[in-house]
Write a structure and sequence with these properties.
Rossmann fold, 152 residues, globular, alpha/beta
Length: 152
């Protein structure tokens, strides 16, 4: 009986995690449809050299959005599976243990939304001088700014 309960709880947690991801991706796509780029967040913070943590779908979309701007650049990708994915990118791909040596980064954007708290702790432990921001927060800020002053 416990086996089924454990399986159910794992599946429920996965559904919840996926719902959060889908919700944020939908918000992001609506912003893009309205011509609003989350890259404005980086400009407001004067962060032009970005490290992207996570090479999943959200990370790839973020990289594409940054590439569309002339004034921002992806310095590197940080991923726990760096060795496996390194050949898929023309950006340097660093493992978490290699992150301590990163140079010329203004901000790290964490794209695995569900694991942000632990990733943030791990990255700040190695490099407390580099701000670490959750992509979910950036999307939420962009959404709030887009709605600021608008009426429905």
């Amino acid at each position: 009986m416990d086996e089924y309960k454990e399986k159910y709880e794992k599946e429920a947690a996965l559904r919840k995690k996926n719902a959060v991801i889908i919700n944020h991706m939908a918000k992001w796509m609506m912003l893009l449809e309205d011509g609003i780029s989350i890259c404005d967040f980086f400009f407001e913070k004067d962060c032009k050299r970005i490290a992207v943590y996570g090479a999943s779908a959200i990370g790839r979309v973020l990289i594409k959005e940054i590439e569309r701007t002339n004034d921002l650049s992806v310095v590197c990708i940080v991923d726990k599976n760096a060795e496996r994915i390194r050949k898929n990118y023309y950006y340097p791909v660093l493992g978490v243990d290699e992150y301590i040596n990163v140079e010329n980064v203004d901000m790290v954007v964490v794209t695995p939304i569900a694991y942000y708290d632990q990733i943030q702790k791990d990255l700040l432990r190695q490099r407390p001088d580099i701000p670490v921001v959750n992509i979910a927060r950036i999307i939420e800020v962009a959404e709030l700014e887009a709605w600021d002053g608008k009426t429905v």
